Amino acid sequence: GAVVSQHPSRVICKSGTSVKIECRSLDFQATTMFWYRQFPKQSLMLMATSNEGSKATYEQGVEKDKFLINHASLTLSTLTVTSAHPEDSSFYICSASVRRENSPLHFGNGTRLTVT
Amino acid sequence: AQSVTQLDSHVSVSEGTPVLLRCNYSSSYSPSLFWYVQHPNKGLQLLLKYTSAATLVKGINGFEAEFKKSETSFHLTKPSAHMSDAAEYFCVVSRTGNTPLVFGKGTRLSVIA
Question: What is the pLDDT of residue B96?
Answer without folding.
Answer: 55
